[in-house]
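Z., the sequence and structure:
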Amino acid sequence: MDYLDTAIVLTLVIITVAEFSALTTDKLMSMIGSRTRGYDYWCECVVEEVRLSLIHDVDFTAAQSAHVLEKLNILMAYEREKAKPYLNRSVLLNNILSTASKVSAPKMADKLAQVLPDRIAKCDHSATSRFRLRTGVKVACVATIIALALNISSLSLINELENTDADDLIRLQSQIESLNTRLEAEDDPTNAGAIMIELRSRLNQRSDLESKTFSVGPIAPGINRMSIEWIFGCVLTGLLAGLGAPFWRQQLSRLMTLKDLKEQVSVDKSAGLNDSEVPESQWGDASVGDASLNESAIKDSAINVPSGVTGKFIPTNISWDPLSNQIDLDVIAQGKPERVYTPEELVHTLRLRLAPQYNANLAAVNIRPESLKKLANSFFSSN
């Protein structure tokens, strides 16, 4: 699997663990009163900042300050009784300024309105940072427990996504077929015995690969829970989940953007020459007998291609897949050919033309059906 695909799958797994851990942590925090303690810490900070602002910034008297703080404490106590106590900043400021305007001159209330938001902001930042840190640690601990219980090891997952078992199976199957051929043609019993031993070994390897199961997940068999690698992988999953689901959603968005960009760059590179870039002299004559083409480099003996394919045509929207070594494209025909010919003839000519630019051993050149349909009436035979 491509490294970007591996990173995307791993990120999705971590997001799932982080979301579930955050929900579990939230329930636990509500049960043990942790959220209420965080609210109390913020209230203490706000009350102290308001008291200092009333005394030093606007010179309220002790009686005036006491009245404002009393109303503030009543409001905070009312919010504290809720399951998830939270006091909006605008509500808080409006309550303080409304109370202050009733016991002081308008100028003093206006001055308080200018300096108080900055003091409240300091409390918000301090309390939020502290709450996020403690919550992140708790989420990481819960996520680690979940990862250990459900066998969600980041290291094992990466290893599973990056394994090459499919390629190994193909290679072993090729070796087994070759050994079978040798065994059928071997007359010497000694050599035949050696071939059979090697063949049995390859068959056992193939059987082991075919019976191999996914090692990640709660029902994965044969988990070595005493393995340092397994424990570290699960702890790593928990620590990564502790960064929070919002963080990993951002990373997933960036990875998806990077993947789209990579695919777009790959398409642009493989597109080759478009309509405006292809000189007519290069593609104007479609004769297969062009001496500049290295036809011997292309192994296409399975198709009997007649000579004399002529006509002006331009390949467009070329998409080359380097993994399968195939090209998909559209064809624009210009002019009238000397005779009607089949799509296979044009495909073969295109393959000869494109091979030097992409790969001398192109697996296939595929003309898209929509393009063939447009050419069918006047350019191709019915077969």
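The chain is about 65% helix and 5% strand. The beta strands are 312-321, 326-334, 364-367.

Let me know what you think.
H.
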